[in-house]
Structure formats: structure tokens, C-alpha cells
Description:
- By secondary structure, the chain is mainly alpha-helical.
- It has one domain.
- The chain is built from 11 helices and 2 strands, in the order E-E-H-H-H-H-H-H-H-H-H-H-H.
- It has helices at residues 23-35, 52-86, 93-125, 141-151, 155-165, 170-183, 195-201, 205-211, 216-256, 261-266, 268-277, and strands spanning 2-3, 14-15.
- Strands 1-2 form a two-stranded antiparallel ribbon.
- It is elongated, with a radius of gyration of 22 Å.
- The two termini are 32 Å apart.
Amino acid sequence: xxxxxxxxxxxxxxxxxxxxxxxxxxxxxxxxxxxxxxxxxxxxxxxxxxxxxxxxxxxxxxxxxxxxxxxxxxxxxxxxxxxxxxxxxxxxxxxxxxxxxxxxxxxxxxxxxxxxxxxxxxxxxxxxxxxxxxxxxxxxxxxxxxxxxxxxxxxxxxxxxxxxxxxxxxxxxxxxxxxxxxxxxxxxxxxxxxxxxxxxxxxxxxxxxxxxxxxxxxxxxxxxxxxxxxxxxxxxxxxxxxxxxxxxxxxxxxxxxxxxxxxxxxxxxxxxxxxxxxxxxxxxx
Length: 285
């Protein structure tokens, strides 16, 4: 996963791009098949006639998640480069402190966008319209997706997403980002959230910690710990991606087994590859 690293808690310099991020394209394809099992009977199941636009929506979600995962990696590398190289001189103390705050916020915004994109893909999978914002009386989008997955008898996928949301690194990352957004949200019914009050009252916890530091070694130590925390978040995202890939692929294999003999024959290479990855035998010749 990384180069010139020993993992969190040790000195590391750069995080390598994980080619496994391209799995998001396969996850999106498999999710399309789950949403419309009948397309597996087509000669071109990835883009069956008459469903090109629907298939394209899934592909866009997969491409977005692919890019977002790589973007998180580069955000982390830019963070390291900023405080270790660009602002290393003592005269750049102010820039170093600001870069820590900026890159941390930048990373967390992308984590939030990543999670939103995952739920958008799953909403498409179970036939929910998430183009409109839920009304006050509606369940949250996350709850709607979870309930729909259960109704579709896809509990392994629902469990996978729940574990991601409850991950010890993901949960506080989303909470911290949401706190930032809500503090700066316009709300006509809450005058205490006018622009002047929000700017006066809000205090970014990272900015508050960093602003109080004056000793360069202490600033670098804080940055190292924060970089390690962000690396753990990225690792959790990569682990989730692989778990979701397996959960969705498992469900597709179940569906394939229920299709016609002709469909099963045509998709046998897909099943053979699934068996191979699960350690259930060699690929068919």
C-alpha cells in the first residue's frame, strides 16, 4: 500500500496509489447487475440495449469513487510534503501551522464526499431516488438505504456498510466534518447562526490545538500524529472497498446461478474467477 513507510505509529514518507481502487469500477458494474438481474441475460450485460443511460449512472458512481480514493491518497501525500518539506524552515512556522489545518480539513471533506458517493451508488442499486434532499419527516438517506438492502435480502452488503460507518476512524472523521458544516450553515429559524455569530463562536478543534503551539518540534510531532490518523482513515476506506467488492460479487454469483443455462454458460468465466479468488479451485481452462 505504501512506499518508504512502516505504517501508522512509525516514520513514513509517502503513500503509494493502490491499484485496487479500480475495483470501484467493478463494484459499480456488479451493483448495476444487482439492480436489474435480467440484464445478465443480455449479450452485453454491462450495457444492455435500452438501458445505456442507467448503466452510465452506475459507471459514473464507480469512476467517482475510484478518483476519490486516489485523491485521498494524494491529499495525504501533499499534507506530508507541506509540513516536512515546503514549510520545514523555522521562519515558515505560520505556514506550517496553517497547512496542517488546511490539509486536515481538505482530507475530511473528501472522506465525507466518498461516503456520500457510496450511499448514492447503493441507492441506485436498490432503486431509491437520492437526487432530492429528504424531507424533515423522512428517514435519513443512510437509513433508507439500509432498510432497502434488508428488504432486498442483501444483508451482507448492509452489514458491510454498517461496519464502515461504525469504524473507529471513520465515525469521528464524519462527525468532525459534519460539525464544521453545521456550524457554518444558514438557518433562518436560528438567528444565532447568523454570519457574525458563526464566525465568532466556531472554533475548529484542529486549528485551536495548532494555534496554541509555538515550539517547532511540538508542531511536527502533532502533524505526524495527525498524518497517522488520516492514514488509518485511508486504510479503513481501502479495507471497506475490498469488503464491499466481495459482498456484492457474492450476491451476483447467487443471481447468476438462478439464470437460464445459456446465461450461466456465458457468465461462467465470471463465476470461475470468483471461485479462484475465494480459494475454491483453479480457473477453468
